[in-house]
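Supplementary Data S3. Sequence and structure tokens for construct A.
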Amino acid sequence: MLDFQFGSRSYRRCDGLTRRQSLHLGATSLFAGLTLPKLLRAEEANRTDGRRDAKAKSCLFIFLEGGPPQQDMWDPKPDAPAEIRGPFQPISTALPGVIFTEHCRNCAKIANKFSVVRSHSHTDNGHSTGYHYVMTGHRPTFADGEYPVPTNELFPSLGSIVARELGNTPTRSVIEAGTQTPTAQNLRAVPPYINLPQPMSAGGPGFFGAEYAPFVIEADPSQPDFEVRDLGQVDGISGQRAELRQRLLSGLEGTRPRTGRAAAMSTYYEKARDLITSPAARKAFHIQSESAAVRESYGMTQIGQSALLGRRLIEAGCRFVGIDAPGWDVHFNCFPSLAGDLIPPADKAFAALITDLEQRGLLESTLVVMMGEMGRTPRVNAQAGRDHWSMAQCILFAGGGVKPGQIIGSTDHQAAYPTSDPVSVSDLLRTIHTLLGIDADKEYPDPLGRPVPLVNGGKVIPGLLI
């Protein structure tokens, strides 16, 4: 049993489970058998990059777990009755005629730099089931609320697909130097798929295997003592002692030829050691090296510093960074939490990320997506909260071939149902694949040998791509 323990704050969802409880994972779940050697073996297997031309080289995916309320953020309905529109006031944005709510001030100022899809809609109203559906494109076979929370043991998640199809990308220093054929060490600064500050509960590799599971940073980067423990030395083992052990191992292995699986695993353990001792990897994860001004621009919050660390990892060559931001399951007295703990930190983090990527020349090559597994009910309930509502929700897109300054789709006067340009889960995933240059129709055999396409149907969201 793997028992993942995260940061100091627990968020309880409506099923009674905290994030801490829901991530007690069995030995056959999404992280079973994940080791750095297997992760690096996946890199080696994907040296051939058959991707089509695409602006996006990587994706930073911010998941607002629990369901952000569309009408209280990016799709306000100021003319609706109070029990529908809520207490937040509308504000103008950088786009003429487009309004957000008052707690999305930072995003409002740069609304011309990203696009909002207001008409994403599906019919799964569960947290774990909706999460699974959005991340894999397949409806789950389990019921919402099961404990332990089932994971996507069959179908691979979006991040795992990106890791398999694209592998690693050269670090920015390599790109700037004009290196045409980066070395393995340059490609291996960081793994191709990373989750932070905890696992995405539906972010596993499915039948792709543990090689394509995420490298998980199990710590809150906003904390003063933040560090990535997997990159540190083992307590009591000095660098000199580790080197002596490696020499002893090499001497033992040199006494007999290594063939087959033994030879392969030996190679990947060597690569794992290289990553653990890599100065480039330690530098990428060392968020403390950022200036105080940059860190404050993102906000000294979990989602803010996770977004900043995500930018550093993208810059270092990661292909897919998945940020899990919990706490959005607001059934009771929701508006104080939304106004204080949830909307402003997410708003600040997203706006700072887009601005920072643009200033660093990385926005064009980095696709940024922010969404949840569902929206919230149009009508405020008797407990002054909003309940599950998957029939309408907003998705923010930026960079990586996205046409900025677009409002795509619309909802009715209650933000309850799409009234134009409805977008399905398959549409969402096909669009992301296309932006990354991945053939969404490519098939892989499942464990029974049946061909499974990366995306089952869907269309590219009209008007979103440049």
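Construct B, processed identically:
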Amino acid sequence: MKLLWYILAGIAGGIIGGMGMGGGTLLIPLLTLLLDIEQKHAQAINLIAFIPMAVVVSIINAKRKNLDYKSILKVVVPAIPMSVGLSFAVGKISSNVLSIIFAVFLTVLGIVMMISTLYKCTLAYMCKCKEEYSYND
């Protein structure tokens, strides 16, 4: 039965990851809260699951010509050494501290996304109102 829950968590993480949000935002809480996996192990599982998802998404975007290769290099070059270094650092941090750091990260991410969405919706609404009510009426 537990295997079924692991599969469902993987499917949910894959769906969210496929939509562009990042499967880890859902997969890690599912693994830690519902399946009682230690935070470090949940993050390791997420990183391993991320590899095939990233390859598939990269292939799809390359076929659609949606990749800016210069920007990719600007992100990948510093990301690789940081990922390796932080992987070693995480090994020395307790799972409780790691859980708190991840919770703060998700909270800040949620707040930033909420503010960005509200800003975009407000702009869209104001532009629509300008079109409907012109000053020449």
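The chain has a mean pLDDT of 83. DSSP finds five helices and no strands in the chain.
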